[in-house]
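Progress against Task 2.4 (sequence-to-structure conversion) is shown through the following example record, which the project officer requested during the mid-term review.
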Amino acid sequence: MSQAGSYYSSVNFLLPQQPPSELPAQLQNALSPLYIAMQQVIQTFTNNCGVSSQPPDQWANYANNYTTVLINNARRMYLTASEDMNYGAMAQFYQVDIISHGVGKGVVYARNASSLWLYNRQAHGFCNVAGGVKAGQVGEFIFKEGIVKITGLNTMQDYYLSPVKGKVMLGPDTIAGDMVQYIGYAIAEDTLYVNMDRYTATAP
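Structure tokens generated for the chain above:
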């Protein structure tokens, strides 16, 4: 990943923050506004077009800041995980109602979704952090729709929320009392197109 302070991108723009120091001072001064302008353009693409993630060291600044949730911004959200979550885990976004264990009232957090009747955690998105996110850390989540890499899928098959926390399963949950929620469609053996529905039924 190419990182230059104001942007974080899979595209290497080969553009430093400022003109080369070996240039004469007069030329550096003349070029400096152009370099600053280009950095602003790159940052605008990241902020408003969603061409890439925000810099990981700035994720905490975006926690519960929903300006990143735009159709043209890849539906990115930055939330604190209340439990360990793996990359690609289906996530429930929920509001904490009581103040305990350092968790603030009225703040939205993310946790592993599950169709199990004991949890009934509807999925609202998925974890998009390579290597996962630890409890208490801010991570990037994709809201409702996107592409996620999951191995062992059956191509061209529908997948639903699993009773196993964070997981998807081939076909709907059939355990009595469990929640049924459509998650997405396997477009390859390792690629799930997520286009999740609100849970529609309870297994008989």
